[in-house]
Automatic annotation (TrEMBL):
Keywords: Cell membrane, Membrane, NAD, Quinone, Translocase, Transmembrane, Transmembrane helix, Ubiquinone. Residues 427-470 are annotated as: Disordered. NDH-1 shuttles electrons from NADH, via FMN and iron-sulfur (Fe-S) centers, to quinones in the respiratory chain. The immediate electron acceptor for the enzyme in this species is believed to be ubiquinone. Couples the redox reaction to proton translocation (for every two electrons transferred, four hydrogen ions are translocated across the cytoplasmic membrane), and thus conserves the redox energy in a proton gradient. This subunit may bind ubiquinone. Its EC number is 7.1.1.-. It is found in: Cell membrane; Membrane. It is a multi-pass membrane protein. Pfam families: NADHdh. This is NADH-quinone oxidoreductase subunit H. NDH-1 is composed of 14 different subunits. Subunits NuoA, H, J, K, L, M, N constitute the membrane sector of the complex. Belongs to the complex I subunit 1 family. It comes from Pedococcus ginsenosidimutans. It catalyses: a quinone + NADH + 5 H(+)(in) = a quinol + NAD(+) + 4 H(+)(out). The chain crosses the membrane at residues 40-64, 110-130, 150-171, 192-212, 224-242, 272-295, 315-336, 348-370, 390-412.
Length: 470
């Protein structure tokens, strides 16, 4: 992940290397969020607000998930505790806290207790750099609805996600049991591999915005959301965020048929609740990052944003649009869980390493050249059609990449035809059961031919071989 991080930082730093070309820097007119009128106690208030916001949303989304999947499966879901069953999640949490806290005899007790704390705490840290809304008035001060912002805020999310992996692998190792260890290793490999593709998918947004600051990325989308120019990056990010959070159809660390529950098999009571809480908070974190990077963050949709000179983009309205976009992603998580079966682990890992990462790297190169031509780094030659001006370098580059893609598809198709021909070749009518050195039963429709060496000869020569070896 560090290699991807440094590569992304180097690529996004290209526009800023030309300090003399201030007109080409996308963020010359968009400084980062101003926290100068925010006293220290107001930072604490906002931190408490973010913590309560995530806890309440977690309680609601668990009820929402059970109700929606219940409707999809033609059953009511929780409907007893509280109105419409709204208090069912709270009741389950209280029941879970009152259960006996068990620690396996062979467990490393210190690490066993530390692992869920790491997994749960890291889930909350990433939300600190997410802008929930514009600057608002709170207790007589003008402060942004964001806990903090730094020049490399998005890299902080990737770094925190990397630290969260320690909670998973330490939980599996410290349990002193085989199944949790296998589940922890499987989940760690899955999360790390999909973090690479996730980081690469965000590089295109860095190139378009010219910054890694979340507030600046949101400000740069006031005219065009990046889901349109960086559509492929959005597609890759959506896949990787599901794999990153261990959710169906990619919850391979919890394959009950293989690992009985994964890395947290031996956990109970509040320790198990921390993993459960961390999973759902991570869902909100990756959804909030997708909203910030691709859907304009807290900004209103284009049609609504134009009403009354953008009145719906000011004040507390931004929090409403942000929550709506956030919950669209949460519904997507629930819809996937109720619709798709779990994939096979080797297929999922092969898809990440052999498809997502190479294709996303190629996409980043394409976006880098297109963005460079738009900023004038490759000359001013352009093709004018009507009132629109298309840089000539971009056109030539896109044509070359398209031809290369068509060639790759053609080669892949020919390889596939060859593989299908070999796979569909008729089986021989006669087979030698000892041709490979081991007895192999015939397939349906086949008959055995005379073995290359009869069993009697093998049994007679076996003592001779043993005596020779002795």
């Amino acid at each position: 992940m560090s290699t991807v991080t440094y590569a992304a930082q180097a690529v996004t730093g290209l526009p800023h290397l030309t300090a003399g070309l201030a007109a080409n820097v996308p963020f010359a007119d968009n400084p980062r969020t101003d926290f100068s009128d925010t006293p220290w106690w107001l930072h604490l208030v906002k931190a408490l607000f973010v913590f309560v916001f995530l806890l309440v949303n977690t309680l609601v989304v668990i009820w929402f998930e059970r109700r929606v999947i219940g409707r999809m499966q033609q059953r009511p879901g929780p409907n007893r505790t509280g109105p419409f069953g709204l208090l069912q999640t709270l009741a389950d949490g209280i029941k879970l806290a009152l259960k006996e806290d068990l620690t396996p005899k062979n467990a490393d007790k210190v690490v066993f207790a530390l692992a869920p704390a790491i997994a749960g705490a890291m889930a909350f840290v990433s939300f600190a750099i997410i802008p929930l809304g514009p600057t608002v008035s709170m207790f007589g001060h003008r402060t942004p609805l964001q806990l903090t912002d730094i020049p490399v805020a998005v890299l902080l999310v990737l770094a925190v996600a990397g630290v969260g992996v320690y909670g998973i692998v330490l939980a599996g190792w410290s349990s002193g049991s085989t199944y949790p260890l296998l589940g922890g290793l499987r989940s760690t490999a899955q999360v790390i591999s999909y973090e690479i593709a996730m980081g690469l998918s965000l590089v295109a947004v860095f190139l378009y915005s010219g910054s890694m600051s979340t507030s600046q990325i949101v400000a740069s989308q006031k005219d065009l959301w990046y889901i349109i120019p960086a559509f492929f990056s959005f597609f890759v990010y959506v896949i990787t965020m599901v794999g990153e959070t261990n959710r169906l159809p990619f919850d391979l660390a919890e394959g009950e048929g293989e690992l009985t529950g994964g890395f947290h098999t031996e956990y109970s009571s509040l320790k198990f609740a921390m993993f459960f809480l961390g999973e759902y908070v991570n869902m909100f974190t990756v959804s909030a990052l997708a909203t910030t990077m691709f859907l304009g963050g807290w900004q209103a949709p284009p049609g609504i944003a134009a009403i009354n000179d953008g009145m719906f983009n000011h004040g507390w309205w931004g929090l409403l649009w942000f929550v709506i976009k956030l919950w669209l992603f949460m519904f997507f998580f629930v819809w996937l869980r109720g619709s798709l079966p779990r994939v096979r682990y080797d297929q999922f890992m092969r898809f990440g390493w052999k498809f997502l990462i190479p294709v996303t790297l190629a996409w980043v190169v394409v976006v880098a050249f297109i963005r460079g031509s738009q900023l004038g780094y490759f000359g001013d030659a352009a093709l004018t059609l009507g009132n629109r001006r298309f840089p000539l370098f971009s056109i030539v580059f896109v044509v070359i990449v398209s031809l290369a893609a068509l060639l790759a598809v053609w080669l892949w198709d020919n390889k596939k035809i060859e593989r299908d021909a070999v796979r569909n070749a008729p089986a021989p009518e006669e087979v030698d059961p000892f041709a490979g050195g081991y007895p192999v039963p015939p397939l349906p429709g086949q008959r055995l031919k005379e073995p290359s060496m009869a069993l009697s000869d093998r049994s007679e020569r076996a003592p001779e071989k043993e005596a020779t070896r002795g």
